[in-house]
Fold:
Amino acid sequence: MKRRASLPSRILLVEDETGLVLTLTDLLRSEGFQVESAGDGEDALELASTGNFNLIILDVMLPRKDGFEVCRALRRRSIHTPIIMLTARGQVADKVTGLKVGADDYLAKPFESSELLARVEALLRRVSVPRENREETYRFGSVMVDFRRTAVERSAKPVDMSAREFELLTYFIEQQGNTVSRQELLRQVWGYDAATLTRTVDAHVWMLRQKLEEDPQNPRHFITIRGLGYKFIESPR
Ligand code: CA
Structure:
């Protein structure tokens, strides 16, 4: 299968059986994914809230907080990272509960590794548009982004953007609907991890608002999520 040309997908694996964690981590890494793992529900919640993951594999039976609680808490925090829940075999109630609390898919244990990989790939395909297949232009509000020409127009007038601003805008669009922390933006857009420089991110987001929002004081697209970071929303409700 052709791997996405963009950054490798990051997967958070939440499971307390160490043997299974090792096996699945190896499996996913051999397929080109970046994998981090959490062994209980509290750690999972913290990692999932702060790290930038493209997908979460979440076991139901976990110490401290079960998978359903983790899933429900994430959705309440407006974290919409796709989640595959690992349920006990034959527990139809688990499946129903999982979907009710906001999981995207479920897989009953025990499962074949090929089955898990198929689900992961399918879910990632469903939620993300691969860079190479992406539309050449993208619109939100009165803004039009032309990825091929790396140009931006607002109300049909060109907007001057620095390369960094354009990368930041592109990342927001790729992560639309997801809360992204300043640290994550630094890592993904600037390529480094330095908590003291998060003001750099704030300054750039401020600039995007000045350039692209109708009313920069009351942004509708580049939203501050207090205590967490930012979120880009294409169509405000
Ligand atoms: Ca477990």
Remarks:
- The first helix runs from residue 18 to 30.
- The first strand starts at residue 10 and ends at 14.
